[in-house]
Amino acid sequence: MHTRKVPVIIASLLFAIGTAMPWIMPSVTGMYLYAGIAGLGYGVYSAIDQALNVDVLPNKEEAGKDPSASSTWPPRSARRWAHHHLDGKDHDRSFTPAFAISIIMAVCAAVFVLRIQKVK
């Protein structure tokens, strides 16, 4: 399990760093760095986190149905929030809150994965 925790933590932090790139470097290069760094972090996270989720489940026989709610609810709620707040009708709106929330959630993910003690 520890071999899966470390890449997930690193991937979460890479995603947070990548998402901060447009603030650190507000240019086209900053957006390329955002896409590259955050994309790498997200790709690694997506590949390994689901395996870690299955490792911590109490019943391995029902592993296929337990993670489904936890892996579909966050993207659906994020899309609804973004649609409501960033729908393009008001040109003064900014993507800053979406980037800030993404960074906070990525760091929280790293902290929560770090707190996993053992497999039941």
Chain-wise SSE layout:
Layout (H helix, E strand, L loop, with lengths): L1 H23 L3 H28 L11 H19 L10 H19 L6
Helix pairs in contact: 1-2, 1-4
Classification by helices and strands: mainly alpha
The averaged pLDDT comes out at: 79
| Total strands | 0
Low-pLDDT stretches: none
Strand composition percent = under 5%
What order do the SSEs take from the amino end to the carboxyl end, as H and E? HHHH
Cα Rg: 16 Å
How would a textbook summarize the main sheet? Answer: none
In total, how many domains does the architecture comprise?
1
Overall morphology: globular
Q: How many distinct helices?
A: 4
The separation of the N and C termini measures: 11 Å
Tell me briefly what this model is.
Helices cover 74% and strands 0% of the residues.
Task: From the structure above, extract its key features.
120 residues, mainly alpha, 0% strand, globular
Task: Describe the protein.
By secondary structure, the chain is mostly helical. It has one domain. The chain is 74% helix and 0% strand. Helix 1 (2-24) packs antiparallel against helix 2 and helix 1 packs antiparallel against helix 4. The termini are close together. The mean pLDDT is 79.
